Hints:
- The structure is a homodimer.
- By secondary structure, chain A is of the alpha/beta class.
- The first copy, chain A, has a domain at 5-11 and 60-85 and 135-327: Ribokinase (UDP-N-acetylmuramoyl-L-alanine:D-glutamate ligase), CATH 3.40.1190.
- Chain A is built from 13 helices and 14 strands.
- The first copy, chain A, has helices at residues 23-28, 41-50, 61-72, 86-96, 145-149, 164-179, 191-196, 198-207, 216-222, 228-238, 276-288, 294-308, 320-327, and strands spanning 5-10, 14-20, 36-38, 55-58, 76-79, 101-102, 114-120, 126-131, 151-157, 183-187, 211-215, 241-245, 251-255, 258-262.
- Chain A has a nine-stranded mixed beta sheet with strand order 6-5-1-9-10-11-12-13-14, with helices on both faces.
- Chain A is globular, with a radius of gyration of 18 Å.
- At the A-B interface, β4 and α4 of A face β4 and α4 of B.
Amino acid sequence: MTHKFDVLGIGNAIVDILVQVEDDFLVDHDIPKGSMQLVDEETSEKLYDKLGSAIECSGGSAANTIAGLASMGSRAAYIGKTKNDQMGHVFDHDIKSLGIEYTTKKDESGASTARCLVMVSPDAERTMCTYLGACVNLMEADIDEAQVAGAFVTYMEGYLWDPENAKAAFRKAMTLAHKAGRKTSISLSDSFCVGRHKQEFLHLAEHEIDILFANEEELLMLYDTRDLNDAIKAVQQHCEVAAITRSAEGCIIVSAGDIITVKGNPVSDLVDTTGAGDMFAAGFLHGYTRGLDLGVCGRMGNLVASEVITHLGARPDIDLKEYIANKLYLT
Amino acid sequence: MTHKFDVLGIGNAIVDILVQVEDDFLVDHDIPKGSMQLVDEETSEKLYDKLGSAIECSGGSAANTIAGLASMGSRAAYIGKTKNDQMGHVFDHDIKSLGIEYTTKKDESGASTARCLVMVSPDAERTMCTYLGACVNLMEADIDEAQVAGAFVTYMEGYLWDPENAKAAFRKAMTLAHKAGRKTSISLSDSFCVGRHKQEFLHLAEHEIDILFANEEELLMLYDTRDLNDAIKAVQQHCEVAAITRSAEGCIIVSAGDIITVKGNPVSDLVDTTGAGDMFAAGFLHGYTRGLDLGVCGRMGNLVASEVITHLGARPDIDLKEYIANKLYLT
Lengths: 331, 331
């Protein structure tokens, strides 16, 4: 069965506002370091007013993954909702400039394009406050059946479970993907997100998702355990493949017949961990959609994740195609 | 005579769109490398559509200088026109977050906030295409008399001579500054800009400007000579102080009694030359408004210029106060 796209991503279409902060700022504002919080527009504005000079760039978890995939040479499409405003225009440009098919209709009125205040601490950890804005208007009608049916993998972010309408879109996409004999995939996004939607995520893992992405913390939260081996055994019963990331430690790739431990790629100049999980998924899926061994997929994930954390921002700074070609069989 | 502000900057309030390009792109589009071109909105959009993923951040030549000054601890104010749109909001936030007084009324309708496509070549040289947008609506009424009278130096960018209305604003500011016994200063901005306004700039240098900033090329263009010594002699007759930048070679500071040559600050990791001239002016004026010797002012200019070219973007990445304190008497 041929496919037009290696991966279709569905997610919250967000413009990131990157700003450096001291840890005290987070403490003073009761924002748990490393978390992603949802905030309303007023709170987002108030926080922004207190923050220093910023840099704006396109973000959104699944959109970052899709951007990474396109940079490696995968054929990719994306679905996510913006408004027809300046930030929506920025998002649109950055996605399309990578050759990604992106046709989701923009809102002409209502909430503005989503933005995420990404606060980067001196130790490179990032803490996010997201105003979902137009994202909450993503709905079933925005899911393009031909795109889903034409994608080897449909990849979604757990964050998409936050806007109520998007859940229906998400479910429609999974149904269409399986109807077309394709694979579904989700990233659990962050442990706070898993906390918000644990029962539904468990149901998804058991019944709807073929390829699960999670970090250690998220997986432990999902299976309500502090023992990683227990969580691995549980996810092995649920998903065809689970890719569990462990920061500098690398990753563990779980499938029915195998549990593969892949060492991390050493990084000497850590700047900003934003996008590490997104880029891991990009590297992994690039290998997966090419039929590479799961261990190689894990190494590719580690490699591209280790690139994105050496600079500010959640998308690759370099041509990942060349990077992967140079690094994969040398490290 | 006490002053509320060390420097008041007046300029085109612009949001930069930073993007990496190959030199071929510039050749294919007939854009002279290293230049700043003015483009209309349609051309700006068409170019943007052809460019890759970008990063947005506040720019504008004089605004960058003022941001640099504030980062060093100078008391600063800024005048420049934006529209009340998302990019205007970004510009506003970034200026105010540095403690800079910025009260220029935003346009509620009409052209959008100015944007500049900053195309960075592999050799770190930047080429700019600017859509002036709302900047063209800066006018005399926007010049706050109290701000001008309260500023030790009123600093303007040559680019401000492009929007017709802004000239009147510019002239009003110079008149008010001298009436209050203050200093006026201008940066010639770029040699193409000097080419566009040579006669008027010559008149300004001779009659209106106390402190002139120019690079070698701009000064040669202004005095219509290929001999730097001739140009230096000419400017010495015109301005109280002229600070002539020479890229890696450093700068020459010309005053009535002296011509001081200051060596450049070595830079090993050149990334993006955007903002080098703006930051030189910031460093120089920070010293000047503190009554430091002109040679020291030149060294301070070189130092902060050498910081900004080691990363993408035209504004400092670090706290310049600490940087200056650590570097000035060690290099």
